[in-house]
Amino acid sequence: MDGTHAPILDGEPIALEQKDQTPRLDVRVVRNMEDMMRVVTIRSAVYMAEQNCPYEEEFDGNDFSATHMIGFVDGEPAACLRIRYFGGFAKLERVAVRHNLRKSRIAFRIIRDAIDFCRRKGFTKIYGHARDELVQLWRMFGFRELENGKKVIFSDFAYTEMVNESQPLEDEIRLGCDPYVLIRPEGEWDTPSILEESAERDASKEIRKLPTAAA
Length: 215
Description:
The chain folds into two domains: 25-168, Aminopeptidase (3-Layer(aba) Sandwich); 173-205, no CATH class. It is 23% helix and 26% strand. The protein has five helices and eight strands, in the order E-H-H-E-E-E-H-E-H-E-E-E-H. Strands 1, 2, 3, 4, 5, 6, 7 and 8 form an eight-stranded mixed sheet that branches. Residues 4-18 have low confidence and may be disordered.
């Protein structure tokens, strides 16, 4: 979806059956430069090398204003996507899966995890651009064509505006929830963070105050 210029599976058939040994699939939020380098490598291989996409069209200046997710197949970096946020909706884009790993289920896993991630952050609308020949695929994830949507054409491909609408989650992150939840790492909202440990450490100490500026 808006996987810049490529379908998420590059038009190859989806493997509904697994081989005798099911590969291990893992997805996580990108939180360090090493994982970001993996994302850049995957996107470069898929979009620039396979599809001859110009560098400036693929790396468009939005990577530092987004959440990135990365997927692994048996520990090997295999897939990525990014999520950007707007008033009232989130946008899935830059979905890419390495050529030799497209018959795994990693595309399904990372997209479903991204949808759950957005819903947990409180977004009930998720928007994206599906390449025209993959509209049916995105319907499998609960997306539908946007009413009165426009045809989108960029980087030599045609896209359809699509949206996924759902009900709020009971445990969505919202104003008024535990303030410590709001300072935990993205995607790890159910696990106490190091800052909560520091709160316990300082419980018996006098709370420090910043020095005031001289009058």
